[in-house]
Amino acid sequence: xxxxxxxxxxxxxxxxxxxxxxxxxxxxxxxxxxxxxxxxxxxxxxxxxxxxxxxxxxxxxxxxxxxxxxxxxxxxxxxxxxxxxxxxxxxxxxxxxxxxxxxxxxxxxxxxxxxxxxxxxxxxxxxxxxxxxxxxxxxxxxxxxxxxxxxxxxxxxxxx
Length: 160
Prior knowledge:
Blueprint: E1 2-6, E2 17-19, E3 25-27, H1 50-56, H2 60-68, E4 71-77, H3 92-95, H4 101-116, E5 123-127, H5 134-138, H6 141-147
Parallel strand pairs: 1-4, 4-5
Antiparallel strand pairs: 2-3
């Protein structure tokens, strides 16, 4: 089964690292002023839904390995970069991941590559010039390839 992640407002990080200004992950320097940055649904601290608690019983490392091994495509429009979009999570915990959906997707994929390169089965594909619009993103060549189980995105997709 293939999973397609299409431009969410934020991603769940498996550690308390967050992207810095250069996009590389490291210790989150603003943790003292953004105390919820690693709480569910931004991280694995705090109260989580029962289905996540059950999945985490084997440990965070096991949960992360299972996630990294999924056939998963991150699909995002290259113009999904409006930091003031009305549906964009603007909490400090979400902002810690990047200023907009495109940056957050790139940052999260880089984070997964850095942590799980040896086992990562996931890919990062883009819809050129598409904003936060499902028709443009899923109707793009990479969107159709993701939905209809193609091995590669026509043109290869962008590499973060």
